[in-house]
Amino acid sequence: MGDTRDGYSDLFGIYVAIALAIFAVVVVVLAFVVVRFRSKSDELPRGRDSHPPREASFAAVITVIVAGLLAVTYNAMADLSNGERSAGGPTVEVTAAKWKWRFDYPDYGVSERAPDGAVATLFVPVDTDAKFHNALAAATATACERAAARYGTGTAVLSGGVFQNRTLLQRTAQLLRNAGLRVLTPELLPANDGRIAYGQLAVASARLAAERGNGHVRS
User: Fold this and answer.
1) Other residues' Cβ atoms within 10 Å of the Cβ of residue 140
2) 42 falls within a domain
3) 67-70: which pairs have CB atoms within 8 A and are 24 or more residues apart?
4) Per-residue pLDDT of the chain (219 residues; tens, 9 = 90+)
5) Could you tell me which of 172, 166, 168, 163 has the C-alpha nearest to residue 192?
6) Domain check: are 114 and 141 in the same one?
7) Which domain range does residue 11 map to?
8) CB-neighbour burial class of residue 146 (10 A; exposed 0-12, middle 13-18, buried 19+)
9) CB of 145 within 8 A of CB of 182?
């Protein structure tokens, strides 16, 4: 399992650059045609309906562009595939049809399918090394750093059921501290839904106390 985000971003950048270039060429050609062949009279201009050499040149240019895009795409996909294999870890084949996902593990002969109305769960085999946790911790820390910079805060709070995983919690917290952020984690209350339930009870208790103080307690 490897991180392929940079590879796909580079490929996307190539497509965007070519698309913008084609759009610019089309706009320039249209502007030239409008200015060059404009007519002030109602009479239709005389000329040939076709120009085979120009049409062939246009088709050849489009063919070259498409062939170049296919070559770049296949080369990039091959590099990404080789990078994933060299990164080690299990092979996971993902099939998605609308909201029905399936995860196949060819190395283990296991296929995980989601029942109707549910989402398939991505499992990591027990003998997978720490790269999975490291990648997830790095992605989480990067997102927290960007959010902290955007909103001008120096504190990050790690909570939620996912952070009951001690390995993920420790590695994410360490990355955030290395980035200069203050990290807060649950201590007296659980990190999962138990904390939400406690908060709901606290709010309800505060509202009830306020109603009693105002003499508006409902029976």
Assistant:
1) 21
2) no
3) 69/14, 69/15, 69/18
4) 445 556 666 777 777 877 888 888 888 888 887 777 666 666 655 655 666 777 788 788 888 888 887 787 777 777 766 666 665 666 777 777 666 777 787 776 777 776 665 666 666 666 555 677 788 888 999 999 999 999 999 999 998 888 888 888 888 999 999 999 999 988 888 888 887 888 888 899 988 888 877 655 454
5) 163
6) no
7) 7-33+80-87
8) exposed
9) no
Token reading at 192: 């999962």
Same domain, 121 and 166: no
Q: How far is CA 195 from the centre of its chain?
A: 29
Q: Whole-model pTM?
A: 0.38
Which are the contacts of 107, defined by CB distance < 8 A and separation ≥ 6? 90, 91
Question: Is residue 49 in some structural domain?
Answer: no
Q: How far apart are CA 35 and CA 103, in angstroms?
A: 57
Pairing of strands 155-157, 110-113: unpaired
Q: How far apart are CA 113 and CA 24, in angstroms?
A: 46
Residue 206 in 3-state DSSP? helix
